[in-house]
Design a protein that fits this description.
Layout (H helix, E strand, L loop, with lengths): L5 E4 L9 H15 L4 E6 L9 H14 L8 E2 L4 H14 L2 E4 L3 H13 L24 E4 L6 E6 L3 E6 L7 E3 L7 H11 L4 E5 L3 H14 L5 E5 L2 E2 L15 H7 L3 H10 L12 H7 L10 E2 L2 H14 L2 H14 L7 H14 L6 H7 L1 H4 L8 H4 L4 H15 L5 H14 L4 H13 L7 H20 L2
Parallel strand pairs: 1-2, 2-3, 9-10, 11-12
Antiparallel strand pairs: 4-5, 5-8, 6-7
Keywords: Aminoacyl-tRNA synthetase, ATP-binding, Cytoplasm, Ligase, Nucleotide-binding, Protein biosynthesis
Main location: cytoplasm
Function: Catalyzes the attachment of glutamate to tRNA(Glu) in a two-step reaction: glutamate is first activated by ATP to form Glu-AMP and then transferred to the acceptor end of tRNA(Glu).
Amino acid sequence: MSSPVVTRFAPSPTGYLHIGGGRTALFNWLYARGRGGKFLLRIEDTDRERSTPEATAAILRGLTWLGLDWDGEVVSQFARRDRHAEVAHEMLARGTAYKCFSTQEEIAAFRAAEEAAGRYPVFQSPWRDADPSTHPDAPYVIRMKAPRTGETVIDDKVQGRVVIRNETLDDMIVLRSDGTPVYMLAVVVDDHDMGVTHVIRGDDHLNNAARQQMVYDAMGWQVPTWAHIPLIHGPDGKKLSKRHGATGVEEYQAMGYPAAGMRNYLTRLGWAHGDAEIFTSEEAMKMFDLSGIGRAPARLDFKKLENTCGHHMAMADDAALLHELQGYLAAAGRPALTETQEALMKRALPFLKSSAKTFPELLDKATFLMVSRPIVPEPKAAEALDTVSRGILKSLTPRLQNASWTKEALEPILTGIAAENGIGFGKLAAPLRAALAGRTVTPSVYDMMLVIGRDETVARLSDASL
């Protein structure tokens, strides 16, 4: 029986959660969740100069917004440094590592000589096979004994069979002379101790896999399944950077993209399953497999992102969408909805969400319920409120006072008054939009009237007909 799948996301807390990191976390989450496995989170905070609690908090916020829940406690790599050092000494005891007393000057001289001789400047320590009785009483590093001949093969689920010639790899330092472990050792020890079965990460780590695989071998540990995914590029095909726009996950929340749409879009960014384009996370979990990941870098396409988000806005549960809207307002530094606005928004969401791709678009369409009287129409809308139109609105208001407040009851009243004045309903709609929302482009007149209610509708029409 195969062991349960365990994946992990292991960001460095030196800044915000990059969109590429968000997709890596998503792929790990989908792979584990779709197989009833575990998705773990480790913060690789060994770089004490650059790691900050603020960056860690930003990463956790970004993952939470994306809806990626992790199992168990967040692991701090720095807190496990004693365990990493313990493994380095265990390698020493096993004979798969050795103490190296070479100085920086000696190493530099060795490499210069190799280069001068036209050879690949891989440092070969004279201490590799030295008799321990010859060891001086001096500072030393612990180096892993890398194989000097043959090849190291990485069987990668995305990149295929990757072969590295062992002669190009030096005896990697695993423990520095001050007793601190190197990152390459810490990663392997953590992944082993956390029971990670699949390492799914960016292909910028592919070269690290050969060295890390040697650590697994040196300890006699099971090597995980490797899957190195291509990076995300901007629309111009160049590595994604600030010049392309937002690069941090939290920026996308503040720009008003719904999380479900973002998850769907990022899942499809570099991965495919037949012609599936729009799907829920539950569907993605069932479909997602490493074989569907392409080798070429994916390009960020904002138009496609918006289109995907539009589908998810329309599919969303109203209560969940309202909750996420409030989260967007907080992230964007905009005022929260008042109780009255929230109640109105709840009634308007069924028709507003079907034509919006982002929360700013949704709010723009909801302007009619956000404004308060007296409404000052935009210049273009004000043009529709001429003397004739105001007169028509004035004659309309008494008829609305006692009408049943349903579309079926309101429709004959509005079309009737348009017919009485010899105009089509389109001609009546323009002053109605101006009076109810102060704009030329709004949701349906009937939808607006039903949401804001009889009293507010009559009051707004009365204001406009003065």
